[in-house]
Design goal:
Blueprint (H helix, E strand, L loop, with lengths): L4 H11 L6 H13 L2 H17 L1 E2 L6 E2 L13 E8 L2 H8 L5 E5 L17 H9 L6 E5 L5 H16 L5 E5 L15 H9 L2 E2 L1
Parallel strand pairs: 3-4, 3-5, 5-6
Antiparallel strand pairs: 1-2, 6-7
The structure holds zinc ion.
The site of zinc ion has 8 residues, from loops.
C-alpha cells in the first residue's frame, strides 16, 4: 500500500532529525496522525515559538531570548572564568554542575576534512573577547570534548592566544573523567563536575 503523500512528507521530515531512523520516523508520523488535534497544535506552536523568539547571544553564542543570554546578563557570574564549549548542549551539561563562570560557544570543532576551518567557528569572537578585557587574569577553561577534533581545536585556540601575546589569559583543560572520544552532553553531572574540578594548566 502506498502511503498518502502528506504522510510520506511528514516521515521524511522526522527522518531528517538527528538520531531518528526510518522506523522511528514512521512511528512518530503515525503517532501524530492518531494524537489529539489540540495537542498537536500546541506542539507546532512551540516549534514556531522557538524559531521566532530565540536567537544567539551576541557575546557568547548561547541561546538567548534577548540580545544577551541569561548567563551573560547575570551580574553574579564570575566574568574572569570563561569556559569554551563546542555547542549549546555541552554548555547546558556544564550549567547543571553549578559552574559560576561565563562561556563561549564555538559552534563545532575544527575538522578540515569535513570543511570546518577556524573561520567557520566562533573563534575570532572569542579572541576579541579575550583581547578586549580589563581583567588582571582570566582563566580560559578548554572544555571541548576529549576527541581528536576537540583536542586539536583546544590546541589551536591556545596557540592563537600565545601568538597574540595575551599574557593575562591562563588556559586550563578539563580533567579526566570524560572518556576519550566521549561527549559532555552524555556525561552525568558528577563526572562533569569532577572533570571541571580536576582541570589542569594547559
Ligand atoms: Zn551569552
Amino acid at each position: 500500500m502506498k502511503l498518502p503523500d502528506s504522510l510520506i512528507k511528514l516521515i521524511e521530515h522526522f527522518q531528517s532529525l538527528p538520531g531518528v531512523g526510518p522506523r522511528s520516523a514512521e512511528r512518530l508520523a503515525f503517532f501524530i496522525l492518531k494524537e489529539d488535534t489540540q495537542k498537536i497544535q500546541n506542539f507546532i506552536k512551540s516549534i514556531s515559538e522557538v524559531k521566532e523568539n530565540l536567537r544567539f547571544c551576541s557575546i557568547c553564542h548561547n541561546i538567548a531570548e534577548d540580545e544577551l543570554c541569561k548567563v551573560c546578563s547575570d551580574p553574579l557570574r564570575n566574568n574572569n572564568k570563561l569556559c569554551v564549549v563546542e555547542n549549546i548542549l555541552n554548555l547546558v551539561a556544564i550549567e547543571k554542575t553549578g559552574y559560576d563562570g561565563i562561556y563561549h560557544v564555538l559552534g563545532g570543532v575544527l575538522n578540515p576534512i569535513h570543511g570546518v576551518n577556524p573561520e567557520n567557528l566562533n573563534i575570532d569572537s572569542l579572541l576579541s573577547r579575550l583581547q578586549n578585557n580589563s581583567y588582571e587574569e582570566i582563566e580560559l577553561i578548554m572544555a571541548t570534548n576529549p576527541t581528536m577534533e576537540g583536542e586539536s581545536t583546544a590546541l589551536f585556540i591556545k596557540r592563537r592566544i600565545e601568538q597574540l601575546g595575551l599574557k593575562n589569559i591562563k588556559t586550563t583543560r578539563i580533567g579526566r573523567g570524560i572518556p576519550t572520544g566521549g561527549d559532555l552532553e552524555f556525561a552525568d553531572k558528577a563526572t562533569i563536575d569532577n572533570a571541571l574540578q580536576g582541570r589542569r594548566e594547559y
